[in-house]
Amino acid sequence: MSVGQTYPSFSSFHKSGAPPEQLRDYEPLAKTCSSFVLRLFAHPSALDHNRSPYEALPYFIAVALSQSRLPDINALAALTLLQRLKARHPDRFFTGAPVPQCIEAERLFLCSYIAATKVLNDDRYGLQFWVRVGQNKFPLAELVKMEKKFLADLDWRTAIDDATLATYEMILER
C-alpha cells in the first residue's frame, strides 16, 4: 500500500465491525497524521506491498485522539516535532527491528503527541493518562523511556512557534 492509497475502513480494525461514532470524527485527522508519519519515516520498500504493515496506524491515531480529547492543534504540533526529528535524523526510517514497523510508527506518533501537548498546555497529564491514550500498548516504564529517547533525539528542542502551527493548520484545512 503506498502512502497515497486509501486505508482500509476503520471497521476492519474494530472488534464489533463498526467503530464507535466518535472515531469517525477523528478519522480525517488520523489519516492525515498517519500519512505524514509514513512520508517521513516509512522506508519506501515497506509501502510498496498490497498489505502495508502500517494499515492500522490511522486507527491507532484516531483512538489516541479520541481518548485524549485534546484540541486538534496538539496533533498538528506533534507533526511539527516529527518534521523536526526527521530534519535532525534524515536517514532514520522504520526498520522493523526489534519491534514491528507499525509499533515503531505508533511509538513515534505517541511520543510526539505527548511532547507537543506538554509544550502547548499548562495542564499536566499523568503518565497513566498517556498509557490509556496509547491504548495500553506501552507499559508505563516503556513509555517513560520512549519519551526520553524522543526528546533526546530532538536535542530537547520542542518550542513550536505560532507561525509554524498556522502553516500546519492551513495544510490540514485543504
What would your notes on this structure say?
- The protein is an all-alpha fold and 174 residues long.
- The protein has a single domain (10-173), classed as Cyclin-like (Cyclin A, domain 1).
- The protein is built from 7 helices and no strands.
- The protein has helices spanning 21-41, 57-68, 72-88, 101-120, 127-133, 140-153, 162-173.
- The longest helix has 21 residues, at 21-41.
- Residues 1-7 have low confidence and may be disordered.
- GO terms for molecular function: cyclin-dependent protein serine/threonine kinase regulator activity; protein kinase binding.
Mean pLDDT, all residues = 83
Write down the CATH class: Mainly Alpha
What's the order of the H and E elements? Answer: HHHHHHH
CATH topology: Cyclin A, domain 1
Tell me the Rg in angstroms.
15 Å
Helix content: 55-70%
Number of helices: 7
Task: Based on the model shown, name its key terms.
Cyclin-like_sf, cyclin-dependent protein serine/threonine kinase regulator activity, 7 helices, globular, 0% strand, disordered N terminus, protein kinase binding, Cyclin A, domain 1, Cyclin_PHO80-like, 174 residues, mainly alpha
Summarize the structure.
The protein has 174 residues and is mainly α. Helices cover 59% and strands 0% of the residues. Helix 1 runs parallel beside helix 3, helix 2 packs across helix 5 and helix 4 packs across helix 6 (140-153).
